[in-house]
Amino acid sequence: MGQLSIFSLEDRYESISNCGDPLEKLNTLIPWESFRKVLQRHLRKARKSEAGRPPYDYVMMLKILVLQSLYGLSDDQMEFQIRDRLSFVRFLGLSLEEGVPDAKTIWLYRETLSNAGVIQQIFKEFDRHLQVHGFKAKKGQLIDATIVEVPRQAMNQEEKKSVEAGETPEAWQENPAKLSQKDTDARWTKKHSKSYYGYKNHVNVDAKHKLIREYEVTSASVHDSQVMNKLITPEENPKDVYADSAYRSKGREKKFRSEGYRSHICTKGRRNRELSSFQKAMNKRRAKIRARVEHVFGVMSHTGAYFIRCIGRVRAVAKIGINNLTYNMRRYCYLAGAA
Question: Which residues touch 223 (CB under 8 Å, ≥6 apart)?
Answer without folding.
Answer: 246
